[in-house]
Amino acid sequence: xxxYKVVYVSKTGFTKQYAEYIASALxxxxxxxxxxxxxxxxxxVIFCSFVFGGNISELADIKNEVDDDKLFVLATGxxxxxxxxxxxxxxxxxxxxxxxxxxxxxxDFSNLNFIxxxxxxxxxxxxxKKSDRGADDNEALRRxxxxxxxxxxxxxxxxxxxxxxxx
Length: 167
What we know:
- This protein has helices spanning about 15-25, 60-65, 85-90, 115-130, 135-145, 155-165, and strands spanning about 5-10, 30, 45-50, 55, 70-75, 100-105, 105, 150.
- With about 170 residues, the chain is α/β, with parallel strands linked by helices.
- β3 (about 45-50) and β4 form a beta hairpin.
């Protein structure tokens, strides 16, 4: 019998929505991640966090606490999901691609501090100046400009299925 733990990092509530959805499907409670969280007694740990600047927030901390074969990661971000985005994220964060799931999050400017707002403005400016923008870049630019919720809870179903199917 597997024991599951779902923990999350969320500044604006979008990642928390996914964590609660996943936890509900696994019949457990989602918990806000804090460094040093007890994970030893769990056979599978699902870590949900957001991407900022290509890095999955607090991933390094949880990787120090959970064995790779027990850890599943759901990352939320402003870019639309794609196989290329997943590969890049796995590479940049030194994760096994089979244990990483990338989904759309959201952007709530009112919950961001000055530094994060400034960084996002730089990203938006860079995208605006990019001459060879593709469809994903255009969608990211739209999301960065307008903000909003881009959560699709069903997009986390492959993670749930893989967690439940893994023996």
